[in-house]
Amino acid sequence: MRYADGGGLSERGRATREAVRLQAAQWFAQDVPAAEIARRLRVSTNAVYTWRRRWRAEGEAGLASKGPGGSSCRLDQPRLDRLAQAVEQGQPCMGSARISAGPWLGSPI
Predict the structure, then answer these.
(1) Distance CA 93, CA 107 (A)
(2) 20 pLDDT band (50/70/90 cuts)?
(3) Which positions ≥6 away from 91 have C-beta within 8 Å?
């Protein structure tokens, strides 16, 4: 599935997840066991262990959201312009023979 901003979560979703991690950081400071934090936050213990390692190494800044995931676009501007033009023009109709052709489907009808 694709998302509008390119990542798996919206800005609001990332903020919510970050708040959960920051709550975990408060409990890390109180030496609450990882299994108990996982139960309270309803996340996996592996996630809590990962967060705790980052918290120990970088503090709360290590638990901050890093923004939307995914790689950046590899197309240069001329190719992006050509792509936009092709999308605006639309795809010409090729008919059912084109769709059904190919070695995996046998010969066209």
Answers:
(1) 19
(2) very high
(3) none
Q: What is the pTM of this model?
A: 0.57
3-state secondary structure 22-87: HHHHHHHHCCCCHHHHHHHHCCCHHHHHHHHHHHHHHHHHHHCCCCCCCCCCCCCHHHHHHHHHHH
What's the burial of 24, exposed, middle or buried (CB within 10 Å: 0-12/13-18/19+)?
buried
Report the range of poorest mean pLDDT among 39-43, 62-66, 90-94: 90-94
- DSSP secondary-structure letter at 100? H
Taking only Cα atoms into account, the Rg of the chain, rounded to an integer number of angstroms, comes to: 24
CA 90/CA 43 separation, integer angstroms: 45
* Distance (Å, whole) CA 106 – CA 109: 9
Q: Are 5 and 11 in contact (CB under 8 A)?
A: yes
**pLDDT top residue among 36 and 97:** 36
Alpha carbons 21 and 29: distance in angstroms, whole number: 13
